[in-house]
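Supplementary notes for students who missed Thursday's class. We covered one full example, reproduced here. Read the sequence, then the structure, then the short commentary at the end.
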Amino acid sequence: MAPKRHVTTDLLLGWVGAGDVPERRRLTSVHSVHTLDRMSTAYVSARVPARYERLVTKQARAARTSKSDLVARYVIEKSIETEFPGISFRTALSGREAYLTGHRVAVWEVVAVHEDTGSVDRTATHFGWLRVLVTRALAYAKAFPEEIDTARRIASSIYRRRREG
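Structure (token representation):
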């Protein structure tokens, strides 16, 4: 394993306190970056109020995963949703997949229709959407092409198996 690099960051949480004596609180996060074979990961630690920790514990149990993996997924997905407005995530047969918020259509499906139509306008017409929804899906797909290819491959495989049998 490659050497670790530690970065400490203080995040200002604002002023809190009772009565006339406000207290300034900071949250210290420690990030350890590990470089693995083809992917680097970063360790991010943060403190949350106990009631949210209990909520995450309950949700992790329901999802049959660890709290750490669930929180990592939440951080990743919320970061992506912020960077790509209109994109959300859900659990599908192929695992977690990106889709257009408020619609049942996965990003990979928009890409497939766009490849068939060759046009953002015709793709938008196909779905009965505004152009902006198609361009958002295509921007996400451009940023995460491996994810889109994998989702399409898995969906195609599932579809083929259902047809055969």
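Commentary. The helical segments are 50-63, 67-83, 107-117, 120-127, 131-143, 145-164. The two ends are 45 Å apart (CA to CA). If anything here is unclear, bring it to office hours.
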